[in-house]
Structure formats: C-alpha cells, structure tokens
Amino acid sequence: MASQTPDGQMAAINEEIQAAMARTGRNPYQMRFELLHLAKDILETNAHMARDDKAQDRKTFYTTAEVISTAKELNAFISNR
C-alpha cells in the first residue's frame, strides 16, 4: 500500500492509471482525445437542435473554449469516485 505522502499518493494514482490503460488498451492521450471528441459531439448536437428549433433562444454555434470546458466536465464526472 502506498504511503500517505504526496509522492505515495502520486504513485497510487499512477498505478491506477496504468491499470486503467491495461484494461482499455488506450493511453492517456487517446482517452483525452476521445473526451474532446465527445464534448465536441455534444455541443455540435446542441447547435443542430437549436438550428432546428428556432422558437428556442439557444446558441447555434460553439467555441473551442466551450469544447474544452465540456471535456473537463466529462473528465471530472468520469474521474469522480
């Protein structure tokens, strides 16, 4: 069991990351890329729905900052224990 020092906590986190990569066959860069794609897809779907439903006062575009923000929200949800 890892110690409770910051180094020990970091070692435990690294072990968990390695185990997750072994289970999924993906590295952290691939997982991050997938999260960004998922965030973009969510925002793109929302924009299409807003265009189709002109009665609603919704945005019909999204920014890079919104994609990154959405990806961070998804990551926080996924990482939440």
What brief labels describe this structure?
disordered N terminus, 3 helices, 74% helix, single chain, 81 residues, mainly alpha
Walk me through what this model shows.
The chain is mostly helical and 81 residues long. The chain has one domain. Helices cover 74% and strands 0% of the residues. α2 (28-52) crosses α3 (64-79). It is elongated and about 55 Å long.
Give a quick summary of the entry.
This protein is mostly helical and 81 residues long. It is built from 3 helices and no strands.
Order of helices and strands: HHH
Helix content: over 70%
Globular, elongated, flat, extended or rod-shaped: what is the shape?
elongated
Number of helices: 3
User: What is the tally of beta strands?
Assistant: 0
Q: Look at the helices and sheets and give the structural class.
A: mainly alpha
Question: Rounded to an integer, what's the Rg over CA atoms?
Answer: 18 Å
Tell me the major beta sheet. none
Straight-line N-to-C gap: 19 Å
Percent in strands? under 5%
Mean pLDDT: 77
